[in-house]
Amino acid sequence: xxxxxxxxxxxxxxxxxxxxxxxxxxxxxxxxxxxxxxxxxxxxxxxxxxxxxxxxxxxxxxxxxxxxxxxxxxxxxxxxxxxxxxxxxxxxxxxxxxxxxxxxxxxxxxxxxxxxxxxxxxxxxxxxxxxxxxxxxxxxxxxxxxxxxxxxxxxxxxxxxxxxxxxxxxxxxxxxxxxxxxxxxxxxxxxxxxxxxxxxxxxxxxxxxxxxxxxxxxxxxxxxxxxxxxxxxxxxxxxxxxxxxxxxxxxxxxxxxxxxxxxxxxxxxxxxxxxxxxxxxxxxxxxxxxxxxxxxxxxxxxxxxxxxxxxxxxxxxxxxxxxxxxxxxxxxxxxxxxxxxxxxxxxxxxxxxxxxxxxxxxxxxxxxxxxxxxxxxxxxxxxxxxxxxxxxxxxxx
Length: 397
Ligand code: PMP
Ligand code: GLU
Fold this sequence. Notes:
The structure is a single chain. By secondary structure, the protein is an alpha/beta fold. The chain folds into 2 domains: 4-42 and 287-394, Aspartate Aminotransferase, domain 1 (Alpha-Beta Complex), CATH 3.90.1150.10; 60-282, Aspartate Aminotransferase, domain 2. It contains 13 helices and 12 strands. It has helices spanning 13-26, 45-56, 69-83, 98-109, 125-132, 152-158, 181-192, 222-225, 252-265, 271-282, 286-307, 344-355, 379-394; strands at residues 32-33, 92-95, 115-120, 136-141, 163-169, 197-201, 228-233, 246-249, 322-323, 357-358, 360-361, 371-374. The chain has a 7-stranded mixed sheet with strand order 2-8-7-6-5-3-4, sandwiched between helices. The longest helix is centred in the C-terminal third of the chain and has 22 residues, at 286-307. It binds 4'-deoxy-4'-aminopyridoxal-5'-phosphate (PMP) and glutamic acid. 4'-deoxy-4'-aminopyridoxal-5'-phosphate binds at residues 37, 97-99, 123, 169, 173, 201, 203, 233, 235, 241, 246.
């Protein structure tokens, strides 16, 4: 009999959809996958070479639990250079992907009965990680008409004596939203009046378009910084999903607790991947620019294509690599067998069956009425996939 804790959560729906699409492909089904959020670019050669060098030089043993000093220093330089944030080595911990960073934070911070505020739509793993750590997720619904921006008034209403933290993610998965200075100031002002920590997931920071600049909430003031755990990683910025390197910067006391937990659970992240990460952070950055330019072309193409489908409404995403169209106008329409498409899950299933396109229903992100399409795939796949989606939707009656 598995633990009560294990039965509180379901497998990650984004990873489940990816596995399903891969399994269909392996069976020879011509499925187009818009499911998982993973850059379709290969990890740059200079990063791979740094890993090979590390192996040859014998960096194949345990490292300090929270990361090699060289990587901590490269992270500190990056936070200073890109975010204007100054952190010491003791205020940084490297973990096995940003997902692991977030999990360590949850382990280090949450007590039973604590409330954790999560603006919806949210990334799938936030509520699951809160539940796995005996705390309670409290959702604050944001609105499409307001660009899914978290409204400080609503945030204020959601805060109680038991609020331990708020999880912010910008640029956002799944909506692509990014926060400007004044929105962040509004949120910070409310939070500083409470005791809540800010968990700031900035993993999509480099993926911003139209000249939008990323600002970390921790950079607003020393007071805000003292309350914030900045989470970032290399999966998205340097196409390094498989290397599993993420990191957290924050107050020393919490980083120390996270390091203690990591020492008893996973130990250090892979030594070789850490050396590759040093190169990713310190080496040439042209790769990132090329990738962002390509994502930029795709997002405009995808949003236009989606808006041309009857019953689908999509704003052009500002960041990350997801489109999050509103598809609620399709609910109630019927498939050829007579069965109605009732919600985002049944629409996603219909599109998988009928159009052989894999995507994730909005319900997985706490936002019924939407679907998420990852455009971290080729222009050719986007073109084909859009045609298939359009055809399948037109066949609904
Ligand atoms: N945060 C968000 C919002 C994400 O979309 C992802 C993607 N998996 C992660 C964190 C975790 O990324 P990783 O564990 O690969 O660093
Ligand atoms: N973050 C990506 C996504 O949302 C990767 C999958 C995952 O880690 O859940 O698709």
